[in-house]
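Example 3.2
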Amino acid sequence: MSRRDGADAASLRQRQLRLRRGLLLGAFSVVALLVVGQAFRLQVLQHDRWAAEARDQQRERQPLPARRGAIYDRNGTPLALSYETFRVSVAPRELRDRDAARKRLTGALGLSRGEAARATDPKRRWFVIPGRFTVEQRERLGNHPGIYCERLLQRFYPQGEVGREVIGVVTRDGRALGGVEAEFDEQLRGTPGYSILRRDARGRTLPTISLPVVPPKDGDDVYLTIDFDLQEIADAALTRAIHSSGASGGDLVLLDPHSGEVLAAVSQRDGRSVSLGVVTEPFEPGSVMKPIAAASLLADHLVSPTDSVFAEEGRWVTPEGRVINDDEPNGWLDLTDVLRVSSNIGISKFAARLRPGEQYRFLRGFGFGTPTGIEFPGESGGRLRRPAEWSKLSQQSLAMGYEVAVTPLQLAAAYGVFADGGVLMEPHLLREIRAPDGTVVESREPRELRRVIAPTVAKRVTKMLETVVDSGTATRAALQSFQVAGKTGTARRTGSNGRYESGSYTASFVGYFPADDPQLVIYVKIDQPQGAAYFGGLTAAPVTRETLQGILAARSSALDGASLLATRLATPGAAPAAGAAPSARSTEATPQGPYVFAVGDTVPAAGEPATGEPIQLPDLAGMTLRDAIRRAHAFGLRVRLRGSGRVERSEPAAGAQLTRGDTLVLVGAEP
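Structure, written as tokens:
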């Protein structure tokens, strides 16, 4: 190779080297431009977007639960409350002083040294301390890096199982199931809030930077028309009746006839409280419907005081070939006697005077076949067919309380028509709703639905119903000191196949007292009582008397004591006036033992200290809450409960000097 050729080759290599350097420099320049461009796009053009994502990665939304509103009775007795607890967790790797953290856990939360050591073990990333801790424990714990507290709200029912069929329940995850809890869930649950927790690059919480962004809005409080004292008395009376009669269940409702307020509502099936059958379970009521037919006849002027029908001596074959029987043989009966002895034959013959359309109109007027509108989920309107669907036997059946399905609440409201001078009031459970600051958000006023019958008709039916209690089928509902008006019923029950079951009955009583100036409507239903004493007069009527006596003993604020005093008949145990005919009140149908008659400060209880005289409180420890409450009520004391199970102590303690009308707190052994 010549020297010239060698020089050309060297020159070529230099050019190639410069080219490669240029290409490499160009590539680096392009990459640099791309990096700068991307950085410009991220840092300038998309700065707000990526800054927001960075902030989101460094913070966490912490929910702040709202306190669920409380449920109270008409007197402010708590029926459902939410109390605050805390769940405590530890992030061991975030602890700056492990020994100090262990001391704080043992001192504030009561953990053992071993439990505190496990909670702060650096091998763990996260440890949840078992159990729930109180507000006081949370305050003692304070704020410590690496220890986290989560606020929890739990539902608590301070009165135990009494009234739970009315109240309902809230599950652990906050779902309202049944009752008032479900009906007013929107008002009770409130609105949860949240706070923001800031974290560092390693995901550790910065405890000094935690701001509540949206505070929770606590739920409203609901005040019911229920009187807990009456609810407890009704619950205890129904429980004893079910046990003594071997029944499968029962219902009891107390209603103020002038306002429509439900003062107590109890439903029990198979020995326990269940959903409120008083409102949700219709049934064929039987003879308690006879006064409705009687009122319809009187309102249409189809019966005069002198009219009577022949009761066929207890057995009648109708022109349609139907056989109607009475429990006892009777001859000629007027309308009052028909109700007094509860004659199926008599009411069937009288009801034939009604036109089907008029009979249906009055049944609807008394509220049957349609819901009452009470504030409770799942209310049933019962069943009442239109006259076009009736058979030739329907008028007789309806007058006797068959071919119609009603709820206990509908029946109580219907008898409230007689007690309120002919006006049907709308039943209701809600008294008012209050905001957390106590402001009244909603107030429920009594609502008159319609006038059903004239006052004179209501008064005539009342007089008829008084004879039922005085000398008819309901003598066991009589009180010594007050006139009670009411009617018994014994109806056959249908099985799952829709046919009547042999030997299966529903026994009931519905009435009001005092008859001359009614303050209370009471309905009692006993399902499938066993044995020969399955009639309403033998099973449901005594429950009525026991419940009313308990109410008088409890000195309930739901009753007007001055008015009761004015309508009181006579001193218990007093002999009748000379020449007076004996009544049910002087027979063994009414117990002659002492009971507290608490209607005013001037009326002493028979056999008990008079108002103002001291009562030495007995030792109630070890008794069941139910028995202790009855004992306290016997002294005329008001009762408040705390806890459940057997009585651990009372406040004030045994031996304290009290007077009737004072409040006694019974503390159960179980929280």
